[in-house]
Amino acid sequence: MSSPLFACQSDDKGIEMTKRNRGVVFHVSLLYNLLLRHEQRRPWWSHIESKLILGALPLQNENHLDQLVQDEGVRAIVTMNQSVELLPNLLATPVSPEEWESAQVGQCFGSTGDFSPPTLETIQRCVDFVHEQVDVRQNSTYVHCKAGRGRSTVVVVAFLIQYRSMTLEAAFDLVKTKRPHVSLHPKQRRILHEFSEKYSSSSSSGSSSPAANTQS
Hints:
Order of helices and strands: HEEHEHEHEHHH
Organism: Phytophthora fragariae
Shape: globular
GO molecular function: phosphoprotein phosphatase activity
Keywords: Hydrolase, Protein phosphatase
CATH topology: Protein-Tyrosine Phosphatase, Chain A
Number of strands: 5
Pfam families: DSPc (PF00782)
Protein name: Tyrosine specific protein phosphatases domain-containing protein
Radius of gyration: 16 Å
CATH class: Alpha Beta
């Protein structure tokens, strides 16, 4: 069996900001999240299911790699950030793909611009990866973007729609119960409606959901 590392490849679709604007927004938003974490004790991650965790960008300077791997037992990760967001910056040092690989954590990349919706293709790849890891391999899996509020929430909600047979509303309500500060932008909500309608149509016609397409 081949290694699950990098089983789900990256794409850069859904980018809607210039590089300069993205950089400014990213650093301001990251600083805001760090302040909320330290001042209001907003959790960096939240368990949606026993083996499914939704959260913010893991930071090496906050010892998140060891906490996730050793304390939470994470064996797979879905990264919705663009590659530039994973680079060290003045505020923090994100855990790098190479560090995840060294820790033997399987990775799936769904590179999507901040405040943008992932494409349906990207959502499907990431959702199938989560299913393969959580349901088939029984691996604890961490799904994240920058703040664990938008891009990564889209993937988790879509997973619940397809593999837990939930409606969009029920899936989002469950996630919000577990992580109250999640928030979807209108375009993210619209893409989830498209995804939900796809599986609602399949269910009503009696057809089964597509099989997972992740590599093993």
